[in-house]
Design brief:
Beta-Lactamase; Jelly Rolls; 2 domains; five-stranded antiparallel sheet; 17 strands; 33% strand
Length: 289
């Protein structure tokens, strides 16, 4: 009876689904569109040089995707170009390495299956992996490889993420800043932060910024500043911007030159009174949505 149970369990194991998810990995594949870009870039370089060549682009197994035979190129170069590309693809290295081996006396390299030991084949690499190769044949060995190199650079350019533009430095001359403080106006307003050159001659109203944190730096004068508490007679003047007549409760501070106050988004605040003039910077930082 025990042996029958063991045999039944073994039979069930044979038909049980096998989880292979952990054994599989994603693979980069050279598309036809990418292969054509590589071949077109190499062909353009060949025409600049007035070179008559065959350009072959293959996948990582060495099978052709694109073959270009430029005008007046000898027919014999077709198979040679494919052979160079296949060598670079399946051996994951430039075909010149095998030519160098034979030159240096390693004749056995001639017997390697699928190897064409002639300069002019280069691997195509994406994210550190060989996804195919390009082979060029028809001119001198070095010129063939130089043309192939242009094709590899075209793939690298197409698969390298574009770098974002460097942020521009914002500069405000002293005269411009001074003028901004005359009546108080923004110096800079972009998506996630703003810089205001603020000026007061009289008390303000209660403010609540639902998405902006205010960083206040006092440059000149004094003011009574109230934070927290409850804003009275509120109204919405713009999306996420609330104003009120005054604040009841809260915490009161006397601000002087050099003070810094950070008011988080959503916290009521109010300049209850101020000297004349009262100048201060406000950096508004928008909360991430």
């Amino acid at each position: 009876m025990k042996s029958k149970i063991l045999l039944s369990l073994a039979a069930l194991a044979l038909f049980a689904p096998i989880s292979v998810g952990a054994q599989l990995s994603e693979k980069k594949v050279l598309t036809l569109a990418a292969a054509e870009k590589v071949a077109d870039a190499a062909a353009a370089e060949a025409r600049k040089r007035n070179a008559t060549v065959v350009i072959a682009v293959v996948d990582d197994a060495g099978y052709p995707l694109v073959i270009k035979r430029l005008d007046d190129t000898q027919v014999a170069s077709v198979d040679v170009g494919i052979g160079k590309a296949r060598t670079a693809a399946i051996f994951r290295r430039p075909s010149k390495e095998f030519e160098d081996q034979t030159k240096n006396g390693r004749i056995a390299a001639l017997a390697l299956p699928g190897a064409t030991p002639l300069q002019g084949g280069l691997p195509l690499i994406a994210d550190g992996k060989v996804v195919g190769a390009i082979g060029v044949s028809g001119n001198t060995p070095q010129e063939d490889e130089d043309i192939a190199k242009v094709g590899t650079l075209a793939l690298a350019a197409a698969t390298t993420p574009a770098k974002p533009d460097a942020p521009k430095v914002a500069y405000f001359p002293a005269a411009q800043v001074k003028q901004a403080f005359v009546k108080g106006r923004p110096l800079l307003e972009i998506a996630n932060y703003k810089i205001h050159a603020s000026h007061r001659d009289e008390p303000g109203i209660a403010e609540i910024h639902e998405q902006d944190t205010d960083i206040i730096y006092v440059l000149e004068g004094t003011a009574t500043f109230v934070t927290g508490g409850t804003a009275v007679d509120t109204r919405t003047i713009a999306p996420e911007e609330i104003r009120g007549k005054e604040i009841r409760g809260g915490e009161t501070r006397r601000l002087v030159k050099g003070d810094v106050v950070v008011v988080p988004a959503g916290v009521p605040h109010w300049f209850k009174d101020s000297s004349s003039p009262f100048n201060y910077y406000v950096v508004k930082v928008r909360s991430a949505n």
